[in-house]
Amino acid sequence: MPPDDERSNYLLAERTLLDRIEGQPAEVHRIRGELGGEAAADEYHRKLEGIRLGLALQGIGPDGHTASLFPSSPALEERVRRAIAAPHDDVERVTMTLPVLSGATQVVYLVLGQDKAEAVQRAFAGPPDPAIPASLLRSEAGETIVLLDRTAAARLDNGT
Fold first, then answer.
1. What residues does each domain of the chain span?
2. Which residues fall within 8 angstroms of residue 103, CB to CB, at 6 or more apart?
């Protein structure tokens, strides 16, 4: 999808982060979703060669997905490519793979909302499980930080 599509993660990042910072980044390497899933993934795979992320800012969906890594998806097993097409019900998606994301110095989860409470509990209080992709993504060489509002943390607070 093009960067100005209302479903675009790039548009969300542009509106909520990039447009609001005083010093604009020298470079932004967005996934060019308008090329289609496979072509955009191929291009991004090449762009990521030799790159190690300093920060991987993640969210979690109510189903436990993070990035476009969905429950029990074959994408969770990818270990060679850095970016892959990740078709899903709503749109053609492209995602970085677990090895790229977990290679980040810091993985930071920012999760808001009661609808995420069960996924948060399963991702951070349970064992790693492909049914909850967020449970599989942790920084291998640095730290993983989880920032939650009260409602997202509700099932951690009361132990249920």
1. 52-157
2. 52, 53, 139, 140, 141
